[in-house]
Each structure stands twice: as structure tokens, then as C-alpha cells.
Amino acid sequence: MYKRLFIFLLFFILSCTKRNMVELKEKNVEELFKTGLKLMNESKYERAIKYFNKIVNEYPHSGYLIKSQFLLAECYFQKKDYEKAKLEYEFYMKTFPYAEDYENAFYKSLICNLKLFKKSQRISILEELKENFLAFKKSYPEGQFSKEIQSYVNTIDSLIAKNFFDIAFLYYKNGELNPAKIYFEYVINNFPNTSFKFHSLYYLAEISYKNNEREKVENYLKEIIKEGKDNLKLKAQKLLTKWKK
Fold first, then answer.
1. Phi-psi region of 175 (alpha: psi -120 to 50; beta: other; left: phi over 0)
2. Rounded Cα–Cα distance for residues 111 and 61 (Å)
3. d(C-alpha 18, C-alpha 25), whole Å
4. pTM for this prediction
5. Is-contact 189 224, C-beta < 8 A?
6. Most distant CA pair in the chain: distance in Å?
7. How many CA atoms lie within 13 A of 215 on its CB side?
8. Quick check: 139 and 97 in contact, CB under 8 A?
9. Is 194 helix (H, G, I), strand (E, B) or coil?
10. Which of 173, 208, 218, 235 has the fewest CB atoms within 10 Å of its CB?
11. Nearest CA to 157 among 146, 147, 149?
């Protein structure tokens, strides 16, 4: 009987000790989280990162883990360290696919990719990035970032259009008018909402003039005059007046 009582008391003491240790540990994590959050709100991102990193690495079973991982990515994003932010957002999305900040993390990871690849000359990378933005738009058509997404898609379109326009202009500069024409037409047909459409129309007008296709010349220039920007409109008007004489 006494033996069983002793075992019961020992078990009770150990249980209480374990519970107290867990509560103490959770309290410590709470303090770490509050400190990290305070530093982040004060824009002291480098210091905040240390606190959130500590929670993620040393307290993986804490109730503050998921939020700390997201805020860790946010700190890097606010620091404009888009490479590290991208990695942390992607880890968050992969590890916690049903977390409350998933949409936000998805959106910010796309922005990171755009920042990292904005100066890229590889059309395939930009096209893949555009597909990812469109996938986000499809997944969250009424989401909190729905208005911004189309703006970023337009930005990517402009970057892709510039690549094709540069190829067309290189052919044009070297006197290879047929391939230049193909690329200028590709820009017009596939990126009609970018400024490169009207620049392409301008060079197509010049190519058509050299090929003695006067009707096309007039159509191209009139479209620029009707919808293009002021400086290009003026150039188009001068050419139209000159070639009509």
C-alpha cells in the first residue's frame, strides 16, 4: 500500500514539475515573441530577427512558432533583403499550408521574386513569374491583394515586351527588316497594354514606308496619334505630314 502511495506521489510530483516547466518555457517564449514584435514595430528588424529566429529554432513546439516564422520573413522583406525573405516565406508556405497568413506570404513571395528578377534578361523567367501571379489571382480573386496583382502583371508584361522590342530593334538597326517586322508585330499583338506597342507601331511605319506600303504607314501612324503618348504622337504626326507630301 505504502509502495503504491509512494509511486502515486512521485508521479504527481513529476507531472507537476513537468507542467510547471512547460508553463515556464511557454512564458519565456511569450516574452521573446513580445520583444521581437516590439522591435519589429520600431523598425529594428535586425534585432527582431534574432528573437524570431530563436523561437523558430529553439522552441519548435511553441504556440508562437507559426507566427514567428511569418514575422521572420516579414522582417527580411521590410529590410529589402528579398532573397532571404523569399526563402522564409516559401518555408512558411510549405510547412504551414493552412496558416492564417498563407495568402499574405504567397503574395509577398511573388513580390520578392519580381524584385529579384526585375532586371533579368531571361524571358522564360519573367513568363514563369507572370504565370505565378496569375495563379495567385485565380486562387484569391476577391482577396486583399486582388487590386495590386493586375498592376504587377502589367509590370511583368512591360519587362517581357521590352525584351522582344530590343530584339526587334536590333534586327531593324542591322537592316534586317523582315525579322524586325515579325518581332515588332509580336509585341503589338501580345502586349497591347504596354508603351512598347506604340514604339513598335512607329518602327513598323518606317519599315512599311521603306517597303512602299503607304496604306500601312498611314494606319500605324494614325493609331499612334490617336492613342500614343504626347512625345511619340508628335513624331508620328511629323512623319505622317512628311510622307503625305
1. left
2. 30
3. 10
4. 0.74
5. no
6. 119
7. 0
8. no
9. coil
10. 173
11. 149
